[in-house]
Amino acid sequence: MLTHYSRYCSLATLAFVMLVLSGCSGESNQSDGLAMGQEPYLRYCASCHGNNGEGKSPAFPPIAGSEWLAMGPESVALIVLGGLSGEIEVAGQTYRGYMPPMRHVSDQDITALMGFIDDQWADWAEPITQAQVTELRGKVGSRPIQGLEGLQALLEEIEQ
């Protein structure tokens, strides 16, 4: 039978362990071995585009080596927000898949995942900010993006 003192020590130890472990789940904590922004990439993108951005042919194009990244972070964020349908070409291969809109993903997570894509594969001159993602979310609305032409038309509309 535990004494009153033993119960107190057990509860205090449990409370301390829980406090320490709760601090381990913070967003800025990189002790889990993941790069900044990699967690949202793995959660929202990797099942289709691969853990290393390699894609999954014939339905899901690669992000790594994609010429679409040259269009800039705003374009990629619009694709995440609005989805993409129709036939597209990436790295010389035609894809006829469908990317659903990811409007449920927070602006903070989209900003982090754009940073991860930039660090891994894009090398954009300027990173996208959370304020820019919020603004793009308002501009894409609920419109689906139909292929490269649809994305270019939306970009032209936004620039006006």
- Give the overall average pLDDT: 84
Q: Indicate the percent of residues in helices.
A: 40-55%
Distance, first to last CA = 76 Å
Strand content: under 5%
Total beta strand runs:
2
Strand order in the sheet with the most strands: 1-2
Q: Give the SSE order as H and E letters.
A: HHHHEEHHH
**Gross morphology:** globular
The gyration radius over C-alpha positions equals 21 Å
Tell me about the largest β-sheet: 2 strands, antiparallel
Q: With helices defined by DSSP (H or I, 4 residues minimum), what is the helix count?
A: 7
Poorly predicted residue ranges: 4-29
Class by SSE composition: mainly alpha
What's the topology here?
Layout: H1 4-22, H2 38-44, H3 46-49, H4 73-82, E1 88-90, E2 93-95, H5 107-122, H6 130-140, H7 147-159
Antiparallel strand pairs: 1-2
Helix pairs in contact: 2-5, 4-5, 4-6, 5-6
Features:
mainly alpha, 4% strand, 160 residues
Notes on the structure:
- It is a single chain.
- The protein is mostly helical.
- It has helices at 4-22, 38-44, 46-49, 73-82, 107-122, 130-140, 147-159, and strands at residues 88-90, 93-95.
- Strands 1-2 form a two-stranded antiparallel ribbon.
- Strand 1 (88-90) and strand 2 form a beta hairpin.
- Helix 5 (107-122) crosses helix 6 (130-140).
- The relative contact order is 0.14.
Task: Please provide a brief summary of the model.
By secondary structure, the chain is mainly alpha-helical. It has seven helices and two strands.
